[in-house]
């Protein structure tokens, strides 16, 4: 995607061949800054501190993190330690483990002298694949948007509500939930996006709004509890979100608050779509209740950071000093509330049969 006329991905190898570079998402929307990751610890810290975030992008960062680790220590022990460090950074998004496993399986059979180079190539392939997948999600989602716009009664744009950030900043490029929005906008469908602020870290207010603004997509940021009212008033034509892990039965784990939007959508007859790449499906799980839910520092709830009118970045406390906070990062939307799963292979019902229709290669062999 373009930032001030320059095409960016969210992660790329540094020109000097000694690091990878990222867009530091903790600085957005107030400042666009890139950062170098030179060691596996830099990569792990970037994921944990959410300088990079979003399920596909943390997978891509971990893949490059293994390259950085193997440059320093290409032994089996070095590989295993780095994989463990990276997988431990964030527990919910399955793409992280998927990417780490993909690199480990590729490099382990190779001689030590070839491992770093192979990891670098594999990380690059994972990034390229992510971009291709998201483009395909955008194409399939565009059909959904076209149909929704054609079916819309009354004037005005197609009103879409999204939660968190599942745009290009959450992936290597294009995004998942935002890819159809970009494609619809580029195809001339008038789209207006309701952007949930997405407390506590405000990925909607800070990142989705920034992305949409750079692309010229009309949008409004709303506080997290607004969606129900908008849906009751007929001001939302469809909802679309990303996901950090989707079970083989179609339960969708995504940023905290997604479930409540899906409930409101069902109550008001608003279609609720989830966009996801194949690597986000956890084929080992049938029940979304088994997905580990990340709990983060309560300080993300008790404090807010933003820019003052004088242009200074400041952090302030919004709760009484003696109030504790709980900070659950994700929730699970049961498959029954999901209208469709938009993948790189097409749109599936949120069910085991629906997913297997698109990914027949994942069918478990029948028990003997
Ligand atoms: O905590 P985050 O910012 O990493 O959470 C991101 C989300 O919840 C996204 O919706 C999800 O990763 C899908 S991104 C394509």
Instruction: Give the averaged pLDDT, no decimals.
Output: 97
Work out the helix count: 11
Q: For the terminal residues, how far apart are their CA atoms?
A: 50 Å
Query: What is the number of domains?
Result: 2
Query: What general outline do the C-alpha atoms trace?
Result: globular
Structural class: alpha/beta
Strand content: 15-25%
Let me know the largest β-sheet: 7 strands, mixed
Oligomer state of the chains in this structure: single chain
CATH T-level fold name of the largest domain: Rossmann fold
Spatial ordering of strands, largest sheet? 8-7-6-9-12-17-18
Give the helix level as a range of percent: 25-40%
For the record, the CATH architecture of the largest domain stands as 3-Layer(aba) Sandwich
Low-pLDDT residue intervals, each spanning 5 or more residues: none
What sequence of helices (H) and strands (E) makes up the elements?
EEEEEHHHHHEHEHEHEEEHEEHEEEEEH
Descriptive account of the structure:
It comes from Rhodovibrio sodomensis. It catalyses: 5-(methylsulfanyl)-alpha-D-ribose 1-phosphate = 5-(methylsulfanyl)-D-ribulose 1-phosphate. The record marks 164 as: Transition state stabilizer. This protein has 368 residues and is α/β, with parallel strands linked by helices. The chain folds into two domains: 2-129, Up-down Bundle (Four Helix Bundle (Hemerythrin (Met), subunit A)); 139-362, Rossmann fold (3-Layer(aba) Sandwich). It has eleven helices and 18 strands. It has helices at residues 40-48, 55-72, 76-87, 94-107, 112-151, 178-186, 203-215, 227-232, 258-267, 299-302, 352-358, and strands at residues 2-3, 6-7, 11-13, 20-23, 34-37, 158-162, 191-196, 219-222, 238-241, 245-247, 252-255, 272-275, 281-282, 303-307, 313-317, 330-333, 340-343, 346-348. The strands form five sheets. The chain has a seven-stranded mixed sheet. A four-stranded mixed sheet has the order 13-10-11-16, covered by helices on one side. Helix 7 links the parallel strand 7 and strand 8 (219-222). Helix 2 packs antiparallel against helix 5 and helix 5 (112-151) packs across helix 6. The protein starts with a strand and ends in a 10-residue tail after the last helix. The mean pLDDT is 97. The structure holds 5-S-methyl-1-O-phosphono-5-thio-D-ribulose.
């Amino acid at each position: 995607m373009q930032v001030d006329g320059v095409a960016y991905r969210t992660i790329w190898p540094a020109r000097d061949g000694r690091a990878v570079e990222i867009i530091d998402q903790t600085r957005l929307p107030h400042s666009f800054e890139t950062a170098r990751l030179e060691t596996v610890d830099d990569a792990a810290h970037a994921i944990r501190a959410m300088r990079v975030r979003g399920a596909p992008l943390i997978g891509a960062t971990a893949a490059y993190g293994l390259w950085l680790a193997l440059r320093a220590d290409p032994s089996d022990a070095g590989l295993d330690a780095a994989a463990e460090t990276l997988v431990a950074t964030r527990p919910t998004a399955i793409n992280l483990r998927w990417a780490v496993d993909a690199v480990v399986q590729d490099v382990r059979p190779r001689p030590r002298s070839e491992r770093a180079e192979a990891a670098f190539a594999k990380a690059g392939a994972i990034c390229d694949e992510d971009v291709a997948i998201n483009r395909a999600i955008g194409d399939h989602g565009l059909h959904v948007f076209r149909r929704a716009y054609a079916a819309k009664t009354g004037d005005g744009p197609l009103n879409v509500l999204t939660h968190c950030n599942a745009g290009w900043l959450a992936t290597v490029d294009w995004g998942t939930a935002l890819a159809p929005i970009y494609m619809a906008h580029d195809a001339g469908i008038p789209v207006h996006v309701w952007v949930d602020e997405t407390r506590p870290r405000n990925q909607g207010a800070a990142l989705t709004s920034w992305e949409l603004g750079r692309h010229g997509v009309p949008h409004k940021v709303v506080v997290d509890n607004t969606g129900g009212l908008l849906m009751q008033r007929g001001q939302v034509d469809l909802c679309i979100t990303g996901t950090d892990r989707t079970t083989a039965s179609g339960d969708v784990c995504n940023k905290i608050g997604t479930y409540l939007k899906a409930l409101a959508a069902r109550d008001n007859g608003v279609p609720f779509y989830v966009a996801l790449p194949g690597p986000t499906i956890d084929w080992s799980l049938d029940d979304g209740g088994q997905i580990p839910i990340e709990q983060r520092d309560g300080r993300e709830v008790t404090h807010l950071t933003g820019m003052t009118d004088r242009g200074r970045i400041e952090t302030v406390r919004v709760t009484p000093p003696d109030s504790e906070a709980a900070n659950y990062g994700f929730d699970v939307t049961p498959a029954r509330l999901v209208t469709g799963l938009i993948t790189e292979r097409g749109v599936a019902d949120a069910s085991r049969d629906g997913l297997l229709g698109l990914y027949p290669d994942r069918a478990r062999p029948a028990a003997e």
